[in-house]
Amino acid sequence: MARTPTIGGNWKMNLDFDEAMELASGLRNRLGSHRGAESIIFPSFPYLRPVSQRLRDSAIAVGAQDLHTEASGAFTSGVTGTMIRSVGCTHVLIGHSERRTVFGDDDALVAKKLSVALTAGLIPVLCIGETLSEKEANQTFSVLARQLDTALRAHTPEALSTLICAYEPVWAIGTGLTATPEQAQEVHAWVRSHVRGLLGPTFAEQLRIQYGGSVKPANAAGLMSQPDIDGALVGGASLKAESFAEIVRAAR
Ligand code: 13P
């Protein structure tokens, strides 16, 4: 089955308002009517509504970088899935490694966030990946299995039909150290086969699995030419319209 490649731009905690709007305009000019790969950008919370307005009726979707698990109430600073939907977003990152390592989101909380994202009607991008010490201890597959099992086991394939998965080895994020296309392909093929065991062959075959970690225009085509790599989740190189657009164009 052909899977449409999907490129995410995770802006993380970068850009002031004017810079964010300029980047949104630059992306609209370059990719607004692009019909190849799908693109989704993940700006900071304060920019979600103006950025999604600027990208209205374009081919670029907008998502949030995180969400809270409760539906409403006294949770100062929390942002719910419904709020995110109401400002024009369609997607949300779940379990990004910086949420896991910097903010302490554990597997159980990530699983809860996935559930509330689905309930809110958002398309979840579930991020998984091993740290350098886990990789060096040969724990890559056991870590990924634990992350996938905890997040996915409560759901049916139907409930997860919109899911996108992002494999982001933590040692490759923001370090300039990218997994080689062959290394990344090996892990992606493993992820797909593990998901096959959890949710069945039809689900696994249509699941889009993005690679993330120092993806740039220079390495994007090589990574995305691999059979189980269905796009990229891009941090630093998504902060310039031209480099993000080059990565989207590299996805065939
Ligand atoms: P970099 O592309 O800056 O390594 O970030 C990857 C990432 O964390 C995307 O979510």
Compounds present?
1,3-dihydroxyacetonephosphate
Net shape: globular
Q: What's the N-to-C terminus distance?
A: 14 Å
Residue windows where pLDDT falls under 50 for at least 5 positions: none
What is the CATH architecture descriptor?
Alpha-Beta Barrel
Strand order of the largest sheet: 1-2-3-4-5-6-7-8
Number of strands: 8
For the record, the CATH class is: Alpha Beta
* Tally of domains: 1
Instruction: Name the helicity range.
Output: 40-55%
If you average the pLDDT, what whole number results? Answer: 96
**The CATH topology is what?**
TIM Barrel
Find the CATH superfamily.
Aldolase class I
Biggest sheet architecture: 8 strands, parallel, barrel
Number of helices: 11
Report strand %. 15-25%
Q: Can you characterise this structure?
A:
This protein has helices at 17-31, 48-54, 81-86, 97-101, 107-119, 132-136, 140-152, 181-199, 201-206, 217-224, 241-250; strands spanning 6-10, 38-42, 60-64, 91-94, 123-128, 164-167, 208-212, 231-234. It has a single domain (6-250), classed as TIM Barrel. With 252 residues, the chain is an alpha/beta fold. α1 (17-31) packs parallel to α11 and α10 runs parallel beside α11. The protein has an eight-stranded parallel barrel with strand order 1-2-3-4-5-6-7-8, surrounded by seven helices. The longest helix is centred in the last third of the chain and has 19 residues, at 181-199. It is globular, with a radius of gyration of 17 Å. The protein starts with 5 loop residues before the first strand and ends with a helix. Residues 10, 96, 168, 173-174, 212-215, 233-237 line the site of 1,3-dihydroxyacetonephosphate (13P).
